[in-house]
What we know:
The protein is α/β, with parallel strands linked by helices. The protein folds into two domains: 2-28 and 271-418, 2-enoyl-CoA Hydratase, Chain A, domain 1 (Alpha-Beta Complex), CATH 3.90.226; 37-265, LarA, N-terminal domain (Rossmann fold), CATH 3.40.50. Helices cover 31% and strands 26% of the residues. Helix 10 (323-329) packs across helix 12 (351-361). The longest helix has 16 residues, at 251-266. It is globular and about 70 Å long.
Amino acid sequence: MANFRIPYGKTxxxxxxxxxxxxxILAPAPISAAPDPAHAVNHALDNPVGGVRLENLARARSVAxxxxxxxxxxxxxxxxPPLLRRLAAIGAPKNAxxxxxxxxxxPPMTQNEFGTILPADLLTDYRVVSHNAEDRTSLVDLGETxxxxxxxxxxxxxxxxxxxxxxxxxxxxxxxxxxxxxxAAVGVCGKETINHNxxxxxxxxxxxxxxxxxxxxxxxEEIGKRIGVHFALNALINENKQIVHVIAxxxxxxxxxxxxxxxxxxxxxxxxxxxxxxxxxxxxxKDINLYQSQKALAHATFVTKEGGTVILAAACPxxxxxxxxxxxxxxxxxxxxxxxxxxxxxxxxxPHKAFQISRDAARERVLFITDMxxxxxxxxLLTPCESLDTALAIVLRDLPKDARVGILPWGNATIxxxx
Length: 419
């Protein structure tokens, strides 16, 4: 027997796999953290890409900084202090700076939650607002993109003289990659904007690790240009959520520079598909809800045989993370019904999670380890198991002794590639 472990919430789950199986761990490359993360941030700010320097933006009377919400492990306590010192040095007082929490269509964070992502001194010294994609009164209309996406943007963000984004660089299941303008060009947009953009995920070019011809991502790039995002500060982190590399500068120049590093860290090659995949989104906050955890399921299915099994372990302490998803899937009996209804009614954010899950669960058996109530999980058309050991007992007894087993501990960020 070989012993393994995968992240689960703020802890880990351990399990054994018989030695007779061909077992492979699909994990980000073991790249060490930057020896001095603060130095890495300052180096990036000193050497911005794309010819855009904060010093050249010094006449700004107001500054808005879009930051990710609690569902993403952005190392804000390390990234923000050097950035704020630069802003102070170019004449931006604290009372001129607003942090806009980029929730996208996630529920707005409450003031009591701000401390989970921002250091206490920043909460005392700076204004912080939480974006609400459904509050039309808080949005500004910037017209439409070439792909017909209506561009509604947070008023606090777009009305600032200097607009900055801070976030992580990592793979994304249909946007290709996170990073660059995406924190603003999705995170502080209206629901109508996000719905139209995310509908492009149905295009076969809207795929993980695809950028140049990815319609969803290129639409986001155009939204970013309409907003006029001036500057990006982006971090690449390893599986331990430690900073490996930092890039700053023109948001549209950050992505071409960053993508090779993201691929170097997160891409894993697989010779042939697996009979069984065991995956975790990567623990907290990646598995804070099912809305986020679904990404690990999708990535696992890239390298799972049709008719194989995926065991998804995700704590989901905040449930699904989408009331629209729960309401839409209520009463559905089969994955085929979900897929047919979604095709009939057309794309909508929220229900798209039901589509994504059923798309994969109709192709493979999915067993789910979670803290969510099992009766509720069944209503979502997923099969709950009491424990990872219970799920493995169900699957392993039916596998041939030479079956292939894949373990994907940080499923949300890992790019498994066949060939």
